[in-house]
What does this fold into?
Amino acid sequence: MGRIRLDRGSIQRSIRDASRRELKEASRQVVNRARILCPVDTGRLRASIQADQPRLFSLRPSVRVFSNLSYAEMVHDGTRPHVIRPRRAKALRFRSGGRIVFVTVVHHPGTRARPFLDQALRQVAASRGYSFRID
It folds into this structure.
């Protein structure tokens, strides 16, 4: 009777390479979908959406899709009503209704959440049959 010898290293490399390709493709789809769903004013937020290299050497291979802009989280998660006060000047200056306005305080009503990254992940995961976790 013949013997079969499994090359575990070769099997692991094959699985790791397949996982890397799959994660790269899935993350590319999430990035593209997030860019479509992202609200656009200047386009900076849309252009900042990117993905890290896949992490394969853990129990759960993963990839991170994110934006590094300071206001990305506020757009994604929304903001509560808050007060805005000047930091370095005596008054705030902005344009409202075509006029320049100076005020010492603004009571901002907050903004509604626009969870474009969550939506993109849910849509791509559903289309590829994945389960996922949002940290």
Observations:
- The longest helix spans residues 8-37.
